[in-house]
Amino acid sequence: MTRLLITASAALCLAALPPAAQEEGSGPLGLPNKAGASVLMTELNAIEAANIIRRGRVIPLGREYRPEMPLGPGQDYALSRTTSRGVTSTRIETTLSAPLTAGTYLEGLGHTGTGGEDPRFFNGFTPDEVAPKDGPGEAGVEHLKPIFTRGILIDMVTVNGGPMAAGQEITVADIEKALDWFGVNEPGNGDAVVFHTGWGRHWIADNDTYLSGAPGIGLEVAEWLIEREVALVATDAWTVGVQPVKEGPERDFPVSLALTQKHGILLHDNVESERLIDAEISEFAYIFAPVPIRGATGSPGAPLAVY
């Protein structure tokens, strides 16, 4: 299969979708109003991703959920156990109390929206529509399609000559250098792009540093990815967008607004991309099924890279 098939326009991809996916009230790029850019991953993307698999090796990219992991302000993690003993068996039930945006997690369409007096999320949803008091909301992760698509690694540690620093921005020139270095075609329609910055080295080892900022992409790269109609962007940091931003208030998220709020592109944070480096691969099948928690604005879980 050629890349020409996969890099067809969003309109052509939508034409191949079943009628149920082409519902009215569409958002940017004509995308269904609750599924975002996940609809860009069609049967063609799944076939191409499957054709990448040659050795049958599976790499989990999710970090281990544990109390020591970095947690944001007001976030807590607790795992409790209840044991029940019978005559012939013993059962142990575990209950996890933690934010859905802790550890390795997928940012849903209702996670980040604009601020001000009239805040809006993807497709113009208001906060009350995303998180109503008496319902599941309009942008829950249960509406997203499962992810099975071509994944490519942008190894910024190699390009940069070492791990990146907080506030260091990835440029289009960096991406083009990485793609050329490893002989990988640029991302196209429905693909997943994984950035390895080396920031994961601070995970648990130095949580204060990890949460203080992050290397990442700026609006230049965000627009480049939007033009290529990718479905998902992942990073080994807690945010895809560079932090702190060069301009704007502290912890502003212009990249998230450009990718997700405007175009429905999904974001995967805290991914253990160093495992891709250890495996010496830069192209793979990227697989993830969001946990269909009705009304949730994010999903925990471990994405897989298969090659």
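Next protein, fold it too.
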Amino acid sequence: MLDTSARLLRLLSLLQAHREWSGRALADRLGVTPRTVRRDVDRLRELGYPVHASPGTGGGYQLGAGAALPPLLLDDEEAVAVALALRTGAAGGGIEGIEETSVRALAKLEQVLPSRLRHRVEALNSYTVPMLGARRGPTVEASVLTELTHACRDHELLRFAYRNHAGEEGRRTVEPHRLVFTERRWYLVAWDLGRSDWRTFRVDRITPKPPHGPRFEPQEPPAEDLAAYVSRGISTETYATRAVVLLHAPLDEAAARISPSVGTLEAVDGHSCLLRTGAYSLDAMVVHVVLLGFDFEVREPAALNEHVRQVADRLRRAVGVSGG
């Protein structure tokens, strides 16, 4: 039988692994009586772990949230995953100030990691190189993200000042729904009360203006796939010139080069896919599509085909080849 200290750690690990345990199941796992389980639960409560017990023969034990954060027990894979996530946060994730916080948390975790796990984390860090600088967008404050997240969770009206792309600031009151994160920016999807429509806001342009509230009854979201919804909005619908282009490349190959902020992709067959994207003008669209690096066919608009021909003629003249 395990001694008391080891048994408490084992009990804590079991409570963290599943949402609820019956007293009999815990007793069987620990090799003790239900009465011993009850005493051990009391000891965990004295140490600050909020273990809730439901009464009756069908009741059980559940680890709840407390006023303070108690120590967590992580298995090997969980510990490595958390360490890598903190390392990524320390490299920057579009959140202002998170680098220092991630470094502090990572130092605490690495101090107690067993050597076998520390070697795994160090190997992964030593032989992987983040390519963040070229794609890093504007940062946002962690406190702003927290404020927006709470408003989404609690269904509270959100008031904020918002700068548009021209730098002009206005006031908005919205029913916040979800935050969406791309590799470069954070976006808020919300129902804009002033425009009676769904809108997508860049979080780095938001300045919250509390107090918020009152609470609202959530509406049906604008799409089931919010990531795709935001991708369409920021890559296509925000532009006056839009195009549908057939790329002669498999979907996976195209997706490796084309981010959701550039356009949306749809498989046609195993060798081609459709790209829907936008640009400020037809000339810009030609350059945009050509630089993707794939052979392509323009599906729409028809005017884009004429611009492609004009650019092709210009390029042939530039290299001294007459058009045919």
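About the second fold: The chain has eleven helices and 14 strands.
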